[in-house]
Amino acid sequence: MNNRALALFSGGLDSILAIKVSQRAGADVTALHFINPFVSEVKTEYIKEKAKELGVPLILEPLGDDYLEIILKPKYGYGKAMNPCIDCRAFMLKKAKELLPKYNASFLISGEVLGQRPKSQMRHSMQQTAREAGVEDILVRPLTAKNLPPTLPERLGIIDREKLLDFSGRNRKPQMALARELGIQNYPSPAGGCLLTQVEYGKKLKDLINHGQYDLREIKRLNIGRQFRLSHGAKLIVGRNHEENEALKASAKDSDILMRVQNFKGPLAVLTGNDISYVALKTAARITARYADCPKEQKVTVTFYRINNPKNKEAIEVIPMASEEVSTYRIE
Fold first, then answer.
1. CB of 61 within 8 A of CB of 94?
2. Element housing 287 (H / E)
3. Hey, what CATH topology would domain 4-182 get?
4. Which of these, 89, 165, 95, lies nearest to 154 by C-alpha position?
5. pTM of the model
6. Domain-by-domain residue ranges, the chain?
7. Residue 77's pLDDT is what?
8. Which has the higher per-residue pLDDT, 38 or 176?
9. DSSP character for 168?
10. Are 226 and 327 in contact (CB under 8 A)?
11. Mean pLDDT score across all residues of the chain
């Protein structure tokens, strides 16, 4: 066993401190960041910047379809929303363990703190995730290590247990004090990140699952725009601003239909699905017109085209849908 470790790195304060404390205790650390489709607030560029500030190599590892399967059918269930925290943590630890030989590393580091989170960081659940991932004796939690049994790297003296910490509970003042001591600034709020903990997001995700549209592209669009279920095989997403309009256009696939109201300011809308009927098309046009700066009680022209054939534009005349009717289609 050598002193090289992979540290699960979210970019949050705990993961930053875990790297610093581990280095101080003798570990040669490489940061490992899983690119998670359900985490919106931590951007890849920020992660790169923080790793550079810490002076550690960085591995960016995308999560794929096997990760989506545990979200769909978690062994240990969900939290208050669609957040399978224990299954998610175990999955990432298992993936990290699989990467150890590739990077000639011997153990893992995590920024977990005993008692900090009510579901995933209780003693029982921390033991459970480590056991499920098969990392019980090679997972070092440097911020809370003295509250836990010594791991193999500690027992062998590869990492100095005396330089590890005993943080516990939900009070984050010790972490903030340590950050000041180490000169660490500009770290994100601990509340940020996982969309699966949001009830409204969970409803949108359940809609995807129930209608057979469960893939990474659709998941990445769940947090963009107003979303409407038109039929089992058709869904509409309407941008709320220029940034969302651009994001929708960039995310469109060949079979998607893009819509705008002609001659009026308004949103870009994307009609997607595997069974788009004329009725769904007309309904989508009426909803799109509802959010445009146009008269609401007379016909307007909505142009539409498929992303793979933008020159072949078609048009349909519709009366914008009334707000009361729009609400019957909205996913919320």
1. no
2. helix 278-290
3. Rossmann fold (3.40.50)
4. 165
5. 0.81
6. 4-182, 198-329
7. 86
8. 176
9. B
10. no
11. 91
Nearest C-alpha neighbor of 205 from the set 72, 43, 328? 72
User: Which pLDDT score, from 0 to 100, does residue 192 have?
Assistant: 54
**Do 87 and 74 form a contact (C-beta atoms < 8 A)?**
yes
Sign of CA dihedral 133, 134, 140, 144: positive
pLDDT value of position 209: 85
Closest CA to 16 of 178, 191, 195, 169: 178
Chain segment 238-276, per-residue pLDDT in tens: 999 999 999 999 999 888 999 999 999 999 999 999 889
The answer to whether 214 and 68 have CB atoms below 8 angstroms apart is: yes
Strands 28-35 and 226-231: unpaired
With CA atoms as reference, report the closest residue to 187 among 323, 47, 313. Answer: 47
pLDDT above 80: residue 190: no
